[in-house]
Amino acid sequence: MTHSTLRPTRRNALGMIGATLVLPQIAQAAATRSIEGAAFGTTWQLVASHHHDLDRLREDIDALFAMIDQQMSPWRSDSDISRFNTMGAGWHRADAEMIHVATAALDLAKLSHGAFDPTVGPLVAQWGFGPIEGGLEPDWRGLSLGDGGIGKAHDELTLDLCGIAKGRALDLAVDLVKARGVDDFLFDLGGELKAFGQHPSGRSFQVAVQHPVVGKPAPATLRLDDGMAVATSGLRTQGYELAGNTYGHIIDPRTNAPANDHLLSVTVVGRDAMMADGWATALFAAGLSGGPDLAQSNNIDALFLTGEGAGISSVRTGAIEGALL
C-alpha cells in the first residue's frame, strides 16, 4: 500500500471524451472508429480499429443491455428484480443470470464484511437516490441462493444489484463483441471500461481517471492491458450538497447513511468488470478508514483519491502502481 500526491498535468487532461468517471482517450484517433448508444440511464461506446464494421453490432448490443435491464433494473416495475422485491418471505424462482449476479453480490458482501450490501436499496431511496421500497435495515445475510431461485428471510427484504450489475453487463458486452470477430477494442459502459487486445497503434489502451471535482484536469492515467477492466465509484456523478455537506448514493452499512469518510473516488482495475464494479462500491463505502486495508487483504488493485485544490492525495493498493502512467 502506497500513499502519494498526484498533481494534474496538461498531458493528463488532453484527449478525453464523454462525462463519466473514467474516460477513453482514444476515440478520436485516426486509426479507430466507434459506435455509441444508451443503456441503464447512461451511455455506452465501443471503440475499435477502423477496419471493423461496428454498426452491425449495434442491434445485438442494444438487445443484450435491454435483457439485463429487464432482469435487474429496480427502476422498472416490470423487471424481475422489482417483482422479487414485492414478494413476501420465502423461496422464489429466478433467471440464471440474476442468480449469477446475486451470487457474486453475496460473495462480495462476505469478502468485504458487509461494506458491499445488496439489501441497502431502501436506504438508497431514503437518501434520494433510488426507487426501492422496503425495510430500512440492511440484512444481506437474510438472502439465500440455490438451484433456480433466491430466498429472503422476511417480507420487506429487498435485493439491489445496481452496484455490480453494470459491470456484469460490460463483461457480457465484451464477450459478445469478441464472438462477432472484433479484435483490439475498448468498451465503455457509463464510465466502466474493459479492453480486448491493444490500441491499433500497437500499445495498450490508456484511460484517464477523471478528477472528482468538475473542471479539474485528470489526476491520473491508467494503462489498460488486454482483458483488463476498470471501474470507479465516487461522489461526482450521483451526489448533492445540503447545508454545506455532500451526500452521495453509496451507503455505508455501518451508519446507514451515505459514505462520508473523506474519500472523493475509488478506482479498481481487474480482469472481471463485475467484480471491479462491486469492489469499487465496497471500498468507497468502507472509506479511508477501512477501504485500503480491505483492498490490500483481498489483493485488489485500487486507487483511492482524497483531498482538494491543486494536489490530490492518493492511496494505492495491489498492482495499481504498475498500471499508472
Number of domains: 2
Question: What radius of gyration results from the CA coordinates?
Answer: 19 Å
CATH topology heading of the largest domain: T-fold
Strand content: 25-35%
Largest sheet: 9 strands, antiparallel
What is the typical, i.e. mean, pLDDT? 83
Would you identify the regions where 5 or more consecutive residues have pLDDT less than 50?
5-28, 239-244
Provide the helix percentage: 25-40%
Q: Please report the number of helical segments.
A: 8
* Topology order in helix (H) and strand (E) letters: EHEEEHHEHHEEHEEEEEEEEEEHEEH
- The neighbouring-strand order within the major sheet is 1-19-18-17-12-9-8-4-3
Q: What does the overall shape look like?
A: globular
Structural category: alpha+beta
Tell me which CATH architecture of the largest domain applies here.
Roll
The CATH homologous superfamily name of the largest domain equals ApbE-like domains
Please, what is the oligomeric state? single chain
Quote the distance from N terminus to C terminus: 18 Å
Q: Can you tell me the CATH class of the largest domain?
A: Alpha Beta
